[in-house]
Structure formats: C-alpha cells, structure tokens
Specification:
This protein is of the alpha+beta class. It has one domain: Sandwich (Immunoglobulin-like), CATH 2.60.40. The protein is built from one helix and eight strands, in the order αββββββββ. The strands form two sheets. It has a five-stranded mixed beta sheet, with no helix packed on it. A hairpin with a 5-residue loop joins strand 4 and strand 5. The relative contact order is 0.25.
Length: 109
C-alpha cells in the first residue's frame, strides 16, 4: 500500500510541476531582419528567430489573420503605402509568444 501511495504522489507531483513548467515555457520571438522604415522596394523579406529552437511560427501582413510561416518570409508585389508585419512563436506545448512587429512604408517612385 505504501508503494502505491508513493507512486501516486510522485505522478501527481510530476503533473503539477510539469504544468507549472509548461506555463512558464512561453517563447520569445525576434525579427532579425526586415525592410527599412521607408523604401521604394515593393518586396519585403523578414528573417526571425525564437529563443525556443523547437518553436514554429505564425506571421501576418497588415490586417490578415496569422498563418503558419517560415523564416525567412518574403512578400512580393506589395502595394505602395504603409504596411505592418507581425510574427509570433508557438512552443511545442502550444504556448504563444507576444508578437514581434515591424512597420514600414513603400514610397511612391
């Protein structure tokens, strides 16, 4: 009976500690490269990374919904004007990072 209680206590402790560890495993995402704040180039390339090497990424351009993406992500034939790019990392456990963002403007010729 003592062995069974010991196993149950160990499993419960692992579950509780594991849950706390998962809650703290929020990745951090960084934009490493992107267009300058003002450019005439209608193509934008973004390179990004996370402190969690196993993280996957979701990106969004302007007001479009987040969608899975890889680094680097390239957008072509963009309209002239102001744009916003956001990327977030997702840990294996499903924890979402705060988005990293960059704004820039594609100027008229």
């Amino acid at each position: 009976m003592i062995a069974r209680r010991s196993i149950v206590a160990t499993v419960l402790a692992l579950l509780l500690l594991g849950g706390a560890a998962l809650a703290q495993a929020t990745p951090i995402v960084t934009i490493d490269d992107g267009p300058s704040k003002q450019t005439k180039n209608r193509k934008a390339r973004f390179a990004f990374s996370s402190d969690d090497p196993a993280a996957t990424f979701e990106c969004r351009l302007d007001e479009v919904d987040f969608a899975p993406c890889l680094s680097p992500t390239i957008y072509r034939s963009l309209e002239r004007g102001r744009h916003s790019f956001q990327v977030r990392a997702i840990s294996v456990e499903g924890a979402l990072s705060a988005p990293a963002s960059q704004k820039w403007k594609i100027a008229k010729r």
